[in-house]
From TrEMBL:
Domain of life per record: Bacteria
Molecular function terms from GO: ATP binding; ATP hydrolysis activity; branched-chain amino acid transmembrane transporter activity
GO biological processes: L-amino acid transport
Name of the protein in question: ABC transporter ATP-binding protein
SUPFAM superfamilies, alphabetized: P-loop containing nucleoside triphosphate hydrolases
Family of the protein in this entry: Belongs to the ABC transporter superfamily.
């Protein structure tokens, strides 16, 4: 398995947020972590990359136990993280933002260049000299993902990539994620948008109130309207 999460528990102060979270991601898979707002999706991602101090459990990445590693070491191992907040440098151009994310080529991981990323996100190639602060939300989301790929990760955590985007940008995001998969990147996507997840994902887990309550293929989830209605309907 590319990523295995076992018995993950996380706290913010005295509040117990995640309860024995467990899931797996295979080589070249796209896996969706589905749930409503506040279900624990973002906390799960932050815990995996070491941004939640109070956590326990086991996180295996490419056969290595990274549970106790700090965030920068986990990223160096090849695990990329795109947070829900579009954290770009607003005063730097698109090209300069990409250079900030550059890392050496990794064995057993796709190698991304600016040219490949401009092919993945043509909008960025058309505005490579534009400051990040003068881009739309969707363009900033593309830039955040592209900058993460400049680190040549073998797995990427995408937190709510379709949130707040126009339908046209969402279509481009679907194409980009499927291209990333074709290039060999394993992906975990946290989403509320079931339709978006269905277009890109091989399998899905549902999280509710910090607990995993479903795991299976997208076809298995489609066959369970009771599960969808109970845990995903607004």
């Amino acid at each position: 398995m590319k990523l295995t999460v076992q018995d993950l528990n996380s706290h913010y102060g005295p509040a117990h947020i995640l309860f024995d979270i467990g899931f797996e991601v295979g080589e070249g898979e796209v896996v969706a972590l589905l749930g409503r707002n506040g279900a624990g999706k973002s906390t799960t991602f932050r815990s995996i990359v070491g941004l939640v101090a109070q956590r326990s459990g086991r996180i295996m990445f490419e056969g290595k136990d990274v549970s106790a590693k700090p965030t920068h070491e986990i990223v160096r191992e090849g695990l990329g993280y795109v947070p829900e907040e579009r954290r770009i440098f607003t005063d730097l151009t698109v090209e300069e933002n990409l250079e900030v994310g550059r890392q050496p080529k990794r064995p057993n991981a796709p190698h991304w260049t600016r040219e490949k990323l401009f092919a993945l996100f043509p909008n960025l190639g058309e505005m490579k000299n534009r400051p990040g602060g003068r881009m739309s939300g969707g363009e900033q989301q593309m830039l955040t993902i592209a900058r993460t790929l400049m680190g040549n990760p073998s797995l990427v955590l995408l937190d709510e990539p379709s949130e707040g985007l126009s339908p046209k940008i969402v279509e481009q995001m679907v194409d980009a994620i499927l291209t990333m998969k074709k290039e060999g990147v394993s992906i975990v996507v946290s989403e509320q948008n079931l339709h978006f997840a269905r277009l890109i994902s091989d399998r899905a887990y549902i999280i509710e109130r910090g607990r995993i309550c479903f795991g299976g293929t997208m076809a298995e989830l489609d066959a369970r309207p009771d599960i969808r209605d109970a845990h995903l309907s607004l």
